[in-house]
């Protein structure tokens, strides 16, 4: 996927983030299936966990000089022309395809033990193979309310995991 085909993601504050370009859920599935290489970040606007992860992945991307493909997991449409939705058969097929590519690879499960898709999710892809991933925030972090912040050690652990994912893709 050529980065020039996408506009930079705009942060909540209205500032463009040049480390990110947005692609659709469908494009992320095609990226993996067609042996793409890069970093995929699945999140959504308004997600409190994503808000905490975003500055960390941004810093890692800037420090390492890489571009991150952002996929808005909160969109009801999963293609670029907004004609395919999660509510129609074609959309569910694409979502299931992506779900199988990602979730089955690293076995993310919900509290009931069922496979699930969780965000924030950062995935390193090299020639179509998943070479690293990070789901969510550190287990030690407890979200009390919107003002909750990561400790320095939690921040540093996340930062290092993102750098490790980037390194696995680049090496």
Summarize the structure.
The chain is α/β, with parallel strands linked by helices and about 170 residues long.
Name the features.
171 residues, alpha/beta, 4 helices, 37% helix
Structural notes for this entry:
Helix 1 (25-33) packs across helix 3. The protein has a six-stranded mixed beta sheet with strand order 1-2-4-3-5-6, sandwiched between helices. Mean pLDDT is 81; it is low at 1-8. The protein has helices spanning 25-33, 48-64, 89-106, 152-170; strands spanning 8-10, 16-23, 38-43, 68-72, 121-126, 129-135. With 171 residues, it is an alpha/beta fold. Strand 3, helix 2 (48-64) and strand 4 form a beta-alpha-beta unit. The protein is globular, with a radius of gyration of 15 Å. Helices cover 37% and strands 20% of the residues.
- What percent of residues are in strands? 15-25%
Helix content: 25-40%
Largest sheet: 6 strands, mixed
Can you tell me the overall shape? Answer: globular
How are helices and strands ordered from N to C?
EEHEHEHEEH
Average of per-residue pLDDT values: 81
Number of strands: 6
Distance between the termini: 20 Å
Number of continuous helical runs: 4
